[in-house]
Amino acid sequence: MRKLTALALASTLALGSFSFAYAADTTATPAAPAQTQGKMMHHKGPMGNPFAGLNLTEQQRQQMRDIMKPRHSEEQRTQMMQHHSNLHALVTADSFDESKAKAEIDAISKAQNERMLERVRAENKMYNLLTQEQKTQFEQNYQKRTEKMAEHHRNRGMGQPAAGTAPTGQ
């Protein structure tokens, strides 16, 4: 029993150390605010972090963290939660009010556009912190991510029947 307990403890510690080391590597550079904050649940997906793998200096990392830090206020989060609550109320209402739904969707779209603008502005500031070498690597990484995304989309469409056709039996 002691051996089993020791083995379980050792493997937990080993996995925990690995996770901590990985987290330290990945949090050193700011996460891409990819469909960014308010991003439909952060996921790395094929695009990943555009600033990953650029061998940033500690000073660059800190400057990037400083740029990313002020991006989302508590007020913005509260407003987005309210928008989603309002949409939920429209969905669960006894009768559908299209004008209210359109107004709520327009408000959400405007907020999302503002967040995207903030993200692009922040990423531009971060890009301009890079050395020429890092900018070249950034562009190479971008091309790789673009190719990977195209491949992802090609693969997603495979095996799915076209609209209006019956699936084939396999």
User: Could you report the average pLDDT, rounded to the nearest whole number?
Assistant: 73
Percentage beta strand:
under 5%
- Mind summarizing the main beta sheet? none
Spans of 5+ residues with little confidence (pLDDT < 50)? 4-46
Overview of the molecule:
The chain is mostly helical and 170 residues long. It has a domain at 77-130. The chain has helices at residues 2-27, 58-68, 74-91, 98-127, 132-157. α2 runs antiparallel to α4 and α3 (74-91) runs antiparallel to α4. The termini are far apart. The relative contact order is 0.10.
Question: What are the key terms here?
Answer:
170 residues; mainly alpha; 5 helices
Short description:
The protein has 170 residues and is an all-alpha fold. It has helices at 2-27, 58-68, 74-91, 98-127, 132-157. Helix 2 runs antiparallel to helix 4.
